[in-house]
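2024-03-11 09:14:02 DEBUG pipeline.ingest accepted 1 chain
2024-03-11 09:14:02 DEBUG pipeline.ingest length=334
2024-03-11 09:14:03 DEBUG pipeline.predict start
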Amino acid sequence: MCQTFDIDFVIPWVDGSDPNWIKLFNKYAPAEKQKDIDFSKERYRDYGLLKYWFRAVEKFAPYVRKVHFITNGQVPDWLNLAAPKLNFVKHSDYIPEDCLPVFSSHPIEMYMHKIKGLSEHFVYFNDDFFLTAATTKDFFFQNGIPCDYAISNIQNPNRTVMRSIVMNDLTEINRNFIKKEYIKKDPFKYFNLKYSKMNIRTLVCLLWNETTGFQNYHLPQPYLKSTLEEVWENCSDVLNATIHSRFRNENDVNQWLFRYWQLCKGNFYPINPTKDRKYFELNMNIEEICSAIRNKKYKEIVLNDSECVDFNERMHKIVESFDFILPEKSQFER
């Protein structure tokens, strides 16, 4: 099927090694509050792989209309700000002034729909998500709606900051949706052959009347901008609280609230989330990671940061692998 609508990519980025950024970070993060704040360095560490992300977009997703590249004003020294497909977006361009500066991804995510010129169909990336083989529009959208998977899940009762945030997302979902009603409306989106054995999760979760959660794979997320606008109309209190939270904390919601909303509305096209997609952590088998990149084994991969004693050595091998499949500069580079 020919997909005639525009698709944009959105990606936030921060250089956590920038002395000016560190100075600003420390100014707004008093020591007495550090116990309440997520300060993990992995959250701000720069891989040095960003130029390959842009090269991959140009080579493997040539249909993309615009890349909305979000920073607090930081500009990689190699970035071509005049690139036709680039929209360089500063936090101050779309996030309210009284919320700035921010050191959490959540306010950045909550206000994405306010980015000037953002298309109705867009895909949200983290800077550790990479395309590694050719894609078409229907990899992200089918029949005009996001490709996704509504596999139910039960939240782990052991509280962490992230689990608290997911529970906040679910509180809003259960306030606005009745599980038996949205499943009854279109059952084959929630029980689907593409989910294979993962349907068992959803079956077990029927024991609970409320939505207990959805399986979350750490992957690029397709959205409709109108979904974000609708969530803001219905959940403004918690969203306003989140955008005023400079650092990640347990009272936030995150972009999964938008995803869950799409799932409960039935506004998605069911896919197998493990087909053509692969999640890696940097401390996993480095040869397997590099082989997946070099052989274009998957259409998209995730390289999630993690502690490893040989970080620099591993990064060197990963850079070599990306350079093997993406040796040429893109329009996004000077």
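2024-03-11 09:14:41 DEBUG pipeline.report The first helix runs from residue 19 to 28.
2024-03-11 09:14:41 DEBUG pipeline.predict end
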